Amino acid sequence: MDEKKFIKRKEKARSEGNTQQLAVCCNNLGDFYNQQGKYQNAMREYLQEAELYAKLGKKLEMAKAHRMTGEMYMLLSEFGEAKEHINLYLDVVKRLRNKVEEQRAYATLGRAHLLHGQSTTESASITMDQLRQAERAFLKSLLLIKDLSGQISKQEQLDMQARCYLNIGVVKEHLEEFQESITYIEKAIKISKSHDLFELTHLCYISMSLLYFYKMHDSTLALRYCNLALEVAKRLPNRVKKICETLITKSEILIKDGDFASAKQILTKAYKKNTPDENDRNAIEKSLRVVVKICQILDELVTTSSLDYSKRKSLYEKLGDGCCQLQNYSKAIEYYQQMLSCAEKNLDPPKNLIPIYVSLYQTYKDNKEYDQALVYLWKEYELNKDIPSEAFSTLCAIAEVCEHQRQSFWTIQDIYQKAKLQVAKNTNERERAQQERVVFVRLKRLMLKHKMQMLVDELLEEAKERGVHIQNDDDGNSDTESDDNAAVVHDENTPELGDDVCLDDLTDSDMSDLDETEKPRPHRATRGVRALTIKRNNKGETQLHQACIAGNIELVRRLLDQGHVVNVRDHAGWIPLHEASNHGFRDIVELLLDRGAAVAINDKGGISCDGITPLYDACSNGFLDVVELLLERGADAAIKTDFGETCLNGLDKWRRSAMLTDGEQAHYEEIRSRLLATLSKTGICKKSAAPLTNAEVEPATDVESESGDTTLVEEELHGGGRKRTSLNRSESKKVGKESNKKSPRDKSAGMEYKTVMAQLKHPNRANTFEEDTFDGLSCEPGSSNSIKSRRSALLDENEIDDNDWLIDDLGPERKKRRFHTPNKEIASNSKENLNTDSMSSTWCADDALEPDDAFQVLLEAATAPTKQQRKKQTSKLRLSGSSNVSNCSNLSIGRGNKTKHQSSLLENGFCRFRSESPRSADDFFDLPSTTNEPDSTTASIHLLISPSKSSPIKVQATPVMPTTISFKIKVENELLLVPVERKKLNDVNIRWLAEEAARRYYNLVGLKPILRLKTADGFAYEENDSLNVALEQNMILATVLDWQISPLGQRYEEMCHQLKKDVDSAVLFALEQTQTSNIICLADFWLLPPITEPIFKAVLHQANLRVINLKNNFIQNDGCRQLAKSLPTLRQLKTLNLQGNLITSEGVDILLSIPSGLEELEELNLSQNPLGNDSLRILDRFCSSTAAKSLQQLSLSNCNLTNLYDFDLAFFQLSAIDLSYNKLTNDSLRKLLTKLNASRLKELNLSYMQEYTSTDERNAAMIAEHITSFFESGTCEKFRRIKLCGCHLSDMNLYKISENLQKACDLDLLDVSDNNKLSGAAFLTVLSKLLHLRKLCALNCVHFVDEERLEKVQQLKQIPSFLSLTLGDKCNEYEPRLRSLWQSHWGDKAKIKTFSECLLLYVNEQDLLQHW
Q1: Is the pTM here over 0.90, yes or no?
Q2: How distant is the alpha carbon of residue 321 from its chain centre?
Q3: Domain 541-688+712-741 classified CATH 1.25.40.20?
Q4: CATH topology for 1226-1234+1243-1412?
Q5: Model confidence pLDDT, tens digit, residues 132-150
Q6: How far is CA 1287 from the centre of its chain?
Q7: 247 SS3 class
Q8: Which helix (H) or strand (E) holds 89?
């Protein structure tokens, strides 16, 4: 529906007086404008809708209209108005108690704060404040979601939760808390992926990709998340648009990495998709033209002679310009440097180097590398300083870069003065007048920026004398307008790189995911020939894939003749050309290229293929003849994998693991030099390292062993597809070829059958018959230097009779029986050996035949007189169901060429039944008689030895079993024993066991966890699993998912009851307030260690706590021991205030020696504790560890510190430091000030650091100079509170400090009390220079106010809102004048108090209470 129809409906509703319908029409029209991007119009419609609903009394609809109004203001970047409307929406839904809309309100408010924080150009503190408010809003939204169960659908609730996690992750990203950001986004991915929220999953993957690339600088993971996003985009309704958006992101990553060949493939695919979004389509076309042109120039560069410097310089210039268009400034700089090198080698005259210098300095400037930009600007100036107009432009550019670099005012002014001298040399009157005006305007702007009003007045006088008119409202931008206009005209007339590229000429060979299976196949007209049906195995491999892997060229040719698709992918994304190249079959590679694979010669596989091309496959496996063929047929050696590796890297990796003959070495060096030449010409490879030799071959390692730690993206990428294995040759060509002809995944039939049968009989048992297990069994002895042939421990199918083999392996009868045995060792071994084997991945025949093994014990105990008798007995009985004892019997050792038969335990003299014997089993084994407890999952039948042929067979009737089974469970550091009655095993499940373990843990510790049970090797049980599956486990591990923790006040009462202590009502009230604020404030409670014990136990695992304030209590070292137990569980603790608690260095050691738990701590206050110098070593150890990575504020006031030695308490990263009232030595103070960061600090307190006597005049002056030098060492722009009481400052010291504090726009307090040397000059300096200062304290500075300066102060337009002064003996003279000054400036807000000779001038009472 178009706009006119919406407007017509609206007018109709207005004419009919239908207010309800009019409001609906306004909403529809607003939605229409919103979709069209006309946010101003949409905002007006939503506002009108809100007014109409307000008249109708529909508060909820009115609130929703205000929310949409706020969102439109957000899109218009008017965040103040946006938040005003959203807050109105929030207030209404709160009054209506609509939790669903309240959650949406907080989420919308969070987005407003987030966008405000992202887009603000104001101070960093405002940005951080907005981001923190966004985080709080999203967290509130997340908490509300949990209360919406039953009000909305489960799917909608999960969608809300996942979006909140994603938003919080984005906020954390902008707060530079990257690990937390990744954690939250991974939570969102987990929810959205498991509940098919595809659009949100796609958004999460894109966010992760951008985070890893731009913040973590990890292009590999960024590309992998892009690949995952592509897979999800295919399932979205607007799939084409989303796929193209993802491809744009992926191409940006590749372009930034300098992989233009891969970027060309990606952008070509995006172009062919033809996205419906016009902006995306234009962006794709623009980037693709440039990338295609760059690839063409790179190809031309490869064929250009290395001595043709003139042509190479031109090509490098085009490459640099193209990279600048793509905003890859780092790569552009490389190409411009090559351009400069070619010009120098070509012996170009110096004047011809100027354009190159210009390109370099502009690119360095765009890349924010201002130091390097200045290097080339000064080089340019040296070449054109004799040409006044050119020299002037260069000097202005130098001054501009210096401003970006934040150099001092005087340095920049000197540069402009040089520019003024060049203007005077210009003979062109018109040009000189224009340049003169430019330099005056820029100087004026510079002086105003640095608040040099007196210099501005002088400059205006000078300009007036010279006839240069500078308007008062001139913002300093007019001087650049002419330059900008000229640049625009120049850009319009100059064609951009790639404008001559015809995108319609791009072929399928430029696409990265070519798969012909989706294309229509040509109809075969041959009569009598049956059409080929393409079939796939479980890996997605077609007949052509398998023929290429096997090296069967005749089959490959026949399949292609029958019409098999050439470029078909398996499930992982490999095409047949990949397989043939990976296995080294040159003839098959050549055949595929001739039959249509040439268009995919640079194919990079699917999303789990890591960007590997056929050329990289051949290089990484050392198939040099295949590499040579692919290069001859047009393979691009410059394409990188997703790991950033080139084919040259793959070739060198292979060479490090292969021993070559002289001929092979020569071939390798030839191929390597060819690759190196291509890569060095294109600027990808800079170093020409010598080829590797046999002496550099590294010993072979087990490539199959991998770390168990995998990231989320690795699990998702490799979870569904087959794993790509590199078939590196080792030993010789012959071995390599033989290993390649047979797939490494092939298994013997015996092992396959044994594995399947074991899994069918025991589905809950870990598979012990892995491929590596059987490969580890050696059948024939051989020398250590020879290559050992390996075979399966089971007999091959050609060595045994098929029927006999099947019967022996099938084992148990249908109905299994349990028997009693007096042998304790045999009974226990059944379970223990099974656990051992299931946890082991490799074992050998020697291990299987150890004397202590159950099989060996039974074998040695066999007493049947002859082999014939045992066979006769065996013919009557069949092998019963077995555990790992029977598995060991399947081992067969090769003995010559005799016909082999797979034996069983029965053939070795064992029987299924217990035999009657004159002697009991105790006489044979000398073991006490015990009752065997059968394993619930294996149900094995215990085999006993028949000592005599004549003994009659008798079956044992009923086993004697214990009535309970006990499960050992480990929770945190506690071991629990949970007994279960045997008869109830089938009635309870793993969930019941977890809850019972949690209950027992609560009785033991006082905290109730929510548990997930796992096996000893980390495999998790499902809640609904039967307890029988855990019978085999010697130990069950319990992972704590969460803690069922009562509110803190209730927890405190429980702990008091448990410890038999009285409940303190004041403490209880304070702890109850924590529920909403997450802040524990127990300041000035005077609590002793016995009273704090239940408090510290109650805070255990209170993960939401952010602040603990225990100021002015007496917890002492004993309390520190109690608190240290809880600190590691407070994962979000930001502030820990232990001021005034009689803590010594021992207590600090206890608190800060915990291994983890304080990673989020930002503020640590240990002031007014007798720590002494011994505590510095402990603090230094803590501050240098990862536990203090977030520490920002450190307070050590009045801690009996005298010498800081060389300890570095993370001073450089701190934003607030308080070391007042410590008698530090002069040297310690000097070292401290050199370590502090004046550009980072916000709060500084150095008051009363040394005692002052009349004999210490020189030391006092040195202290003041050290402090002054510190303020001159940085920008000082972030300072908010500064206390320099008793620091012996003079007027000159305070003048220099004030000069450096002029940039501190948020300066709240400057306290210079007890600096007796300060006079009225210092008073005037502070007030005139620090215009942003809000509070000034100067008590006991008796000369701080005098007659002359007081008159000048009265003329100031801006003064602080709080002044505390000591007037001395002239109090009666100055006080009336100061009162008059204060009242005239602040009017009714002015408040004044006097105490003795002190005068307090303030505006609000809070300032008075805080600073007096």
Answers
A1: no
A2: 33
A3: yes
A4: 3.80.10
A5: 899 999 888 888 888 888 7
A6: 46
A7: helix
A8: helix 79-96
